[in-house]
Every structure is written in C-alpha cells, then in structure tokens.
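Hey everyone, long-time lurker, first post.

I ran two proteins through the pipeline my lab uses and got sequence/structure pairs for each. Pasting them in order. The first:
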Amino acid sequence: MKRSKTSKYTAFRLLKEVLSDVNDKKPSPDEMMKEIKMMNFKIRPIDGDIFSLTTKNVRFIESLWRIGRIEKIVIKAQDRLSTDEKELFFDYLDELELQMQDKYGKLLDNLTPDEQKKLKLITLEIFKEVKFKKDIN
C-alpha cells in the first residue's frame, strides 16, 4: 500500500525505515566495502591500536556500513519531519547511545582486572568532511 504524499512523515516511520534498511538489506561484505569506500569516511583513532582492525573484520565493516546507511537515510528524510518529530527522533537516538554506553560500562565492570587488560579496546572518531559548493553570485 502506497502512502499519499500528504501523509505525515513521523519519527517512528523514519526509525522503521532505518531499521529495515540496515537489517533487511545487508549486502555481502565485499559490497559493503565498496559502498564504504564511496562514503568517504575519515577515521581517527582516539584510544587503542587502529592496526588491530583489518579489512577482514566483518563486524567492523558492517558497523561502518550501517553508520553510512543510517546517515544517508536520515539526511534524506530530515526535511520531511516536523520540528517536533525531528526532536523526538534525535532524542531517541541520544537515549539509545546512552543505553549502549551504560551496557558497555556494565560489561567492563563485570570483568576482572586481568580480563580487562587482555581486551584490545579501541575508540575511534568516524566523520566525513563535507564540502559545500560555493555560491558564485
């Protein structure tokens, strides 16, 4: 069933679209790598050894691919959301981030000091440089 162009685009609908895209439409790891290269991510290590990650690390590749897909969907959809719906959507993302940080902290707290030392943790900053077209006027 197609929705009419006048139907309200909601934060819930955007979230559903994001989840559907990143979970149901996953390409092969090789295709993900091709798409990631086109996404032009810049990756800067904040803590840990970046060389511990390899291009064979499928979970890392999948995470990068998901970040790019989510960004693409959100950028396309943000103009269709009302101000209230945008706030609701980004509040949800903030809450999700806090929950993940909390789970991560609890996971580390449950490890012994020896187990924590054995972990190869890495913190990365992942960003894109956005080039704006200059106005020629």
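...and the second, right after it:
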Amino acid sequence: MHLFMNPGENLDLLHPDYQLGFFVAYQIKTPTLSIDACPNENVHSILWGERKEYERLSAEATESWLCSKWKRNQEPTIWKALEEYRERLYDKYLPVNFTVHLPLIRVTDLQQFKEGIICYLWNQDNCHYSLLPEDIEFNLDIEYGSSTIKLIRKKLKTESGS
C-alpha cells in the first residue's frame, strides 16, 4: 500500500490498523521550536539572543539566494551555517526521544499501524522525529492498561558527517 491516496480513492484498501495509526498520530503533538515555520501547540521557546542569531543567519541566507551570489551546484557557506545553528538549537531544546502515553490500543498489524503514523506526521511539515518504521517503537503495558509510542529525533546531515 502506498502512503498517499486521493480522498475517496480505494478506501477499501486502507487497513484498519493504518487508519488507527493515522488517528493516533493526530493526537501526537511533537515538540517544535518557536523558530519553526509551522509550530504546533507543543512549542519550546528559545532564548532571545539565539532567536536574533537565527534570524540574522536566515536573513543572510535568504538574501544570498535572492541575489544569486552563489552558484547552483555549490552549497553556500551561510546556508550550512544556518542549518548547523538550527541543528544545535534542536539538540539543546528538543528531547532526543519523544514518548507519548495512550490508553491501551489493540494493533494486529504493526507495520500498517506505523505507516498510518508516518503518513500523518509527514504531512505535518514540522515533525523533527524520524519517520522510519524502525525508529518508531510501540509498546503495550497490559498490567497498567496503557500503550506508548516512542519517536527518535532525526539528525540533519552536516559536512562533518554527524
């Protein structure tokens, strides 16, 4: 099954666990930073000086792009600096692991459930967590009658390979 379907198209192909995962992901409010373009209700504010530095780097990168000061196939230094600064802010303010506690959920096809979660979170455009099925953990605790979903924050690739 593919992740993207037109509304009303092949609804009978949607597995119930895919639909359940999509609905559960709707309840997940992954952390965002106040500098994100589309922050959600779970916003982490950054310090005023950090915001000013981010805005300066962002303005320089935008101006550089608009003025075509760098060649198409050459990644500009200012853009790398902006991405590295943003990654440092994510490291400082966002938890590496984000765990959501839910009521007990019965899932029969874990892969379909994860695909539903991935589809919804990918369409949010502000999820800083890995959307690979192997990076999404789902656990049941029958004794306490609860479920948990754990997401792992993704890392941006930098020149140093970190």
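Reply from user beta_strand_b:
Welcome! Quick read of the second one: The chain has two domains: 14-31+95-152, 43-92. The beta strands are 32-33, 43-44, 97-103, 136-141, 146-152.
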